[in-house]
Amino acid sequence: MLQHQPLHLQSALLGVFCLFLIFNAPVIQAEGMEIHGSNTIGAELAPLLVEGFLKNRGSDPVRILANGKDNEKLLIGNQSGTPLRILVAAHGSSTGFKALEARKADVWASSRPVKPAEVQKMAGQTNLRDSGSEHVVAIDGLAVLVHQSNPVDQLDINTLAGIFSGKISNWSEVGGANRHINLYARDDRSGTWDTFKSLVLSEPHSLHSSARRYESNDQLSDDVSIDPGGIGFSGLASVRDSKVLAISDGQAPALKPSRLTVASEDYPLSRRLFMYTHGNSASTIAKDFVEFVLSEEGQALVSTSGFVSQNPLAVKPDLAESTPPTFKVLTRNYSRLTVNFRFSEGRTTLDNKAQRDLQRIADFLSKKGLTSNDLMLIGFADQQTDELRAQMISELRALSVRKALADFGVRDVRYTGYGHYMPVGMAGGKSGQLRNGRVEVWIRDRQAR
Predict the structure, then answer these.
(1) Banded pLDDT at 41 (limits 50, 70, 90)
(2) Lowest CB count within 10 Å: 184, 234, 276, 418, which one?
(3) CB 406: neighbour CB atoms within 10 A?
């Protein structure tokens, strides 16, 4: 039949036929998994992680096929002759939740945390906030993008809200050229959009109707890079040829997204990238995949994708000019690890990411031949009514991390509190409260040991 068709139709028919065979092979001879959700994760990161996972299980080579739909990829490997088929469908975070709820997806890739309404909808299946269901797979920074010729280098979040809501419509209003501002934004199904909306466009602001909307981070960035009047936002891995602005929140210093500022979540538009599963009832392959992603090997792949991994790294930070002299003395002989401990509720309850980070620090010390004597924990609080209360809260937070590290064999770590000084977010704001209330991890420099 094919010999009577034009060559391009023959190729198309063969492709469809191959996919038919792949998806309709006897179930007993195959193992499979589906990942649905975020384009930020699904465009490049998820396929890279899947390929690494398949190779880790003994599959070499791994075939990557298009399945006839935009933003979808099918990865095929094998293990001892058993086919392994994993579909990655990247149509936005909200689509992944619907697929997980319907049990169509084994893994929901999300570039935002689960919403309370989603937790409630899934309550009969699993607790999506439980550590067995919620997995932080990478850290990303929402990069604010402009054309390379734009003289503006930094903006604060309030100004950014004014621009995207249309209240500021000319670059001359923020120190730029006399040029109309053109807006570029992700679409409503995107977790990237949800994150930007929650961090920047909170009430009373809303996105101006003139904004061009995109399903793809890469395409948005490419279009901004050729528009001298353009401004947009994307995941850190999609900066490409655009210029990245430094962003400030409140009185905190303006920061550009970097390995340290994003990994520590000090950068105002940093965010966590998640994978959600069905907890204890998740399939074996889904559990194995998530464990691989969270492993040192999986996190190393995260780094190669342009996102920020959670494997700890010691960095000598460039402290801002406004840094108090006492803090400079305190950290003079130390570098900072790219790990911050944050809290899920109350004042000292560590969140799901922190639980995994405890083990990562223990592994880091072991690999480097270091001990607990080489560590220092510094706790911080959000703005409080008086200094004494802030100091007490910051010390309690550092102490809680110290106690938690002891369970992983890292005992008697030096700790202190620094009160409500050196905020990284707007004092008293919702985002600022979460980011200012933190515990930083510092490691003694080699020459000071």
Answers:
(1) very high
(2) 418
(3) 14
Q: Which of 217, 225, 293 is nearest to 44 (CA)?
A: 217
Largest CA distance in the chain: 85
Pairing assessment for the beta strands 72-79 and 63-66 based on DSSP bridges: antiparallel
Angstrom distance (rounded) from CA 384 to CA 224:
41
Of the candidates 155, 244, 151, 191, the residue with the CA atom closest to the CA atom of residue 41: 191
3-state secondary structure of 231: strand
The architecture (CATH level 2) of 2-136+275-301 comes to 3-Layer(aba) Sandwich (3.40)
Taking residue 101's Cβ as centre, other Cβ atoms within 10 Å add up to: 16
* Domain 143-256, CATH number (from 3.40.190.10, 3.20.20.140, 3.40.50.11540, 3.40.1080.10): 3.40.190.10
Burial of 432 (0-12, 13-18, 19+ CB in 10 A): buried
Domain ranges, ordered by start, for the chain: 2-136+275-301, 143-256, 312-448
- Secondary structure (3-state) at 143: strand
At the top level of CATH, the class of 312-448 is alpha beta
Query: What does DSSP assign to residue 115?
Result: P
> Which DSSP state fits 136?
E
Indicate if 143-256 has the same CATH topology as 2-136+275-301.
Answer: yes
Radius of gyration of the chain (CA): 23
How far apart are alpha carbons 392 and 209 in whole angstroms?
47
What's the pTM? 0.80
